[in-house]
Design a protein that fits this description.
Arc Repressor Mutant, subunit A
Length: about 110
């Protein structure tokens, strides 16, 4: 995994992309991430994370059809790639392995 870098925010965005599957686009990702984290997030941060992950090959994008409700603009949809899924799996395994090392003690 050392050859790939995935920060915490990118990991969360990638998880949402994977969860939304074929319905992952900027605003949908933003709404889901804000709901899950309870934090206000800037849409440009989402777009920057998506761009970086697309450059790394973790996601791929395609444009949807033109709609009147969007003033003739198209949505850009994102899908997780096999490499993106592999990275998520590795992150999950690493975090789980470390978490399981925490002693079973009461901190109360």
């Amino acid at each position: 995994m050392a050859e790939y870098s995935l920060g915490e925010f990118q990991e969360l965005v990638l998880l949402i992309v994977a969860a939304l599957n074929k319905e992952a686009y900027g605003v949908a990702i933003l709404r889901n991430l804000e709901k899950e984290t309870g934090k206000k997030i800037n849409i440009s941060a989402i777009h920057m994370a998506l761009k970086r992950m697309e450059d790394k090959g973790f996601v791929e994008s395609q444009y949807g059809g033109i709609t009147n409700e969007r003033g003739g603009r198209r949505k850009k949809y994102y899908l997780i790639t096999a490499l993106g899924k592999k990275i998520l799996d590795e992150q999950y395994e690493l975090r789980t392995r470390i978490y399981q090392r925490i002693p079973k003690i009461s901190l109360g």
